[in-house]
Amino acid sequence: MEPTSEEYVGWDVDVLYGPWPRHDRDTGLAEVRAHLAASPVAGALALSTRGVLYDDAGGNAETVRDLADCPELRPVGTVDLRDALTAEARLDELGAAGVRFLRLFTVDQGAEPDFPGYRRVVRLAVERGMALLHDGDPRRFGPPLTGCGADVVFLDLHAYLLADFLLLARDEPGFRATTRMLSAPDSIERVVESVGSRHLVFGSRTPFMDLSPQTLKLRYARIPADDRAAIATRNVEELLA
Fold first, then answer.
1. pLDDT tens digits for 3-24?
2. Exposure string (b/e) for 165-195, b if CB count within 10 Å is 16 or more?
3. What does the pLDDT read at residue 3?
4. Which of 58, 59, 99, 142 could form a disulfide with 138 if both were Cys (CB 3.0 to 4.6 A apart)?
5. Are the CB atoms for 63 and 97 separated by under 8 Å?
6. Residue 204 near residue 12, CB atoms below 8 Å
7. Nearest CA among 125, 63, 64 for reference residue 91
8. Residue 189 and residue 192: Cα distance in Å, rounded?
C-alpha cells in the first residue's frame, strides 16, 4: 500500500541507533536512515545508544559527529542520571554543540522523580532552555515538572494513562506526548478536543517498532487536517526554532 500525503510526517522525535541488549539485533545509523527514507517520515531527532548504555560523554560526541552529515536528522543528547554530578559538564558540552534536546532514560537508569540526581539534571536542563524527551510514566514524572516552564515530550504515554496526562496538560503548555502508545480508537481525538493538537507530536521508537502503524494511526485520526499537520510537523518545528 502506497503512503498518501496524509501520512507525511515532518519529524519523528523517538529514533535510536546502535546496540540495544534487549533487541534481537543491532541497527546502525545507515540502516536506520534507509528505513526512514523508505517511509513517509522526512526527519527525526536521533540518538546513539552508546550514550545511555555505556558512556554519556562519548555517546553524545558520537551522536553529534555521526549526524553532522545527516541533514534529515537532528542530534539528541543524554546524561547518566546515576551520576548527576557530571551532568553540568555534559549539558555544557551539548550546548556548545548546539544540541537542543535532552533524552532522559529514567527506566533503564533506575531514576525516580524524587531522586536528587534526577531533580538536579532537570533543573540544569530547563535553565539552559533544553527540551526534554522523557521516558516513564507521566503520572509520576509530570507533577515534579509542573510550574517550571519546561518543554517536555513524554515518550511513553499509554492510552490507559491519557486522562491524567490531559489534566496535567491543561495547565502546562510545554507538556507534549507522542502518538506511539495512544492505541485506543479515539485517543488522538481526545487530546485534540480536550487540550489541542499542540500537546501531541509524532514518535515511532524506530528501529524497535514498525513505522507503518504509527503513520496510519495519524492518517486515519478523525481530526482536522491542520491539527494533523501540527502533530506531524509544526509542533516539533516550534521546539527547533
1. 677 789 999 999 999 988 877 7
2. bbebbeebebbbbbbbbbeeeebbebbbeeb
3. 66
4. 142
5. no
6. yes
7. 125
8. 5
Could you tell me the three cell numbers for 233?
A: 510537523
Give the residue from 215, 211, 164 showing the smallest Cα distance to 191: 164
Residue 133: name the closest of 208, 77, 59 by CA: 77
Report the CATH fold assignment for 9-133+203-240: TIM Barrel (3.20.20)
Q: Does residue 118 contact residue 106 with C-beta atoms inside 8 Å? A: yes
d(CA 37, CA 105): 27
Q: What percent of the chain has pLDDT over 90?
A: 87
Q: How far apart are CA 17 and CA 106, in angstroms?
A: 18
Describe the crossing of helices 116-127 and 87-96 by its angle, rounded to 10 degrees. 20
Mean pLDDT of the chain: 94
Name the packing angle between helices 187-194 and 162-171 (round to 10°): 20
Q: State pLDDT tens for residues 25-53.
A: 778 999 999 999 999 999 999 999 999 88
Length of the chain: 241
Annotated domain spans of the chain: 9-133+203-240
Q: Which position has the grid cell 509524532?
A: 202
Cβ contact 62:51 at 8 Å: yes
* Mean pLDDT in residue range 93-111: 96
| Distance in Å from the first CA to the final CA of the chain | 34
Q: Are 36 and 72 in contact (CB under 8 A)?
A: yes
> Is residue 2 predicted with pLDDT exceeding 80?
no
Q: Are 153 and 131 in contact (CB under 8 A)?
A: yes
